[in-house]
Amino acid sequence: MIPVLGLIGGILIGLFLQPEVPLWLQPYLPIAVIAALDAVFGAVRAVLDGIFNDKVFVVSFLANVVVAAFIVYLGDQLGVGSQLSTGVVVVLGVRIFSNVASIRRHLFRA
Amino acid sequence: MTQPPEPTKQTGPEPTGPSTPTPEPTSPSTPAPEQSSWRTMFRMARPRATRANLFAALLAIVLGFALATQVQQTQQQGLEQLREDELVRILDDVTQDAARLGNDARALELTRDRLEGGANSSAEALRAAQQRLDTLGILAGTAPAEGPGIVLTIDDPSGKVTSALLLDALQELRDAGAEAVQIGSVRVVADTYFTDTPNGVEVSGTLVKSPYVIKAIGGSATMASAMDIPGGVNESVRRLGAVSTVDQRDQVSITALHTLEEPQYARPVPAATGAGK
Fold this sequence. Notes:
heterodimer; A: mainly alpha; B: Alpha-Beta Plaits; disordered N terminus; transmembrane helix (chain A); transmembrane (chain A)
């Protein structure tokens, strides 16, 4: 509950402050957001699987973000930044979809 | 990597994600396990003021913040968030567009200039052609002319004046700068000829009789003095017993016209420079 409120509050803060994304962060922020979403959906699934652990959630959240950003950074350095970004997004998207499917099966038995 | 299946107590303080507001369960046929799932969600969603819960809330805040920021950033569609190769591609596109539009603009300007210049130059050409037509008309005797000049009258009651005298007079006038000459009712042009006939002098086949009136347009003073030179026209006329008078006028009008005939043999040679005839 509190994290949900926190999510909403963060969105509102972002809407009101309208911050400028720093230049160095711009290539990584979208990927980081996708990775964090993946972590969140994974957490929900873990809750329903009965294996949720908050420490695991926090660590996996941060690790997801860092690894995604690092992959994009590496891709930029290797000259395949846009392709690797696409790849990361695809992988994370697939994971999000599978997590959502698992959640759906848990909640709706369908 | 979200949740390694770490077998743990779900008693721990941890709420995450989209939990409570999810609406009605869809399959009432299997109520029992479904309800347990929902119960799990509700239980996990219950606020628990623990360190981990607050940490998760903090992460959620950060996520929401980043989400909103990124969405806004994307909506701004600024160039600064694009990668180098994308920027290069955009720059190429813009450069190509600029080159293409520049070419278009140049072509259109060229067309415009040509059209304007065409209007101007055709008017100019028309003016020049008219001017040349006037000049040539005067030279060829096909156009009437007027201007300052003299009227030379030779009164010759005894019929002594010959074609040679008239030819001399004409030559003197031309030497003195006469631009248009009329003898009697005959316009004097390049192919004018003088013949002596028993009846008198014919100019280009037209009989002219005394008094011979020769009108010439040109520098009147020059022509008048040319008539007066020793051994000139006036003296010759006097020697023949005739009387010549020179009348300088500000306005002499020559109205006699010469009819051009198509040359029978001569053909114009195309001008190399196209300067025209």
